[in-house]
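User: Predict the structure for this protein chain, please.
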Amino acid sequence: MKVACDQVRTGDADVALAIGAGKSPGGMFPLIPPITPVPLDVQILSWKIGLPNPAFWAMYMMRRMKEYGDTEEMIAYAKVKSSRAGAVNPYARYRKVFSMEEVLNSPKVCYPLTLYEICATSQGAAAVIVGTREMAQKLGKKIIRIAACTAGSPIYGDSTLRLRTFSVNASETAPYFSEAVSSSRRAFQKLA
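Assistant: Here is the predicted structure, written as structure tokens:
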């Protein structure tokens, strides 16, 4: 998205297309080489001791609950909110609006996560077309201004848990931020 926005912003293009796609295997994610260097025996151990996706994310959420005071209701709200968008999308896998009660009362999979909070293994794609105001007007399209767009990268020593990795490179002095935190912080700074 950032590259497409930059192409339009710098005048290199009047219109640009940004796409994203994901393809997941059936069941839990398999053992694959991690992005951050982790000894293979640690990777294999994580799966032998039963650390599939729900267990990984459950530990991550428990850490957030301890460090930031997140609650089960706050976690459930992510499903409630995203279900509203899915309900109106004809291509969504689940086209149902879930209530807070339905999410919280669905079967526990791995505390604190419930069945309706677990990601369904599937594949999907998204695309967005960005362009200049003039091009949108010429095509008779609704103008939606993009306030900020950034990209993020992990920070060395970051103690944020990563899928298929333990925090082996974390150090006490490293900030606890993920690339999502650092990129969103930069986006809000652009708005200031």
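The helical segments are 2-9, 40-48, 53-68, 72-87, 100-105, 133-139, 179-191.
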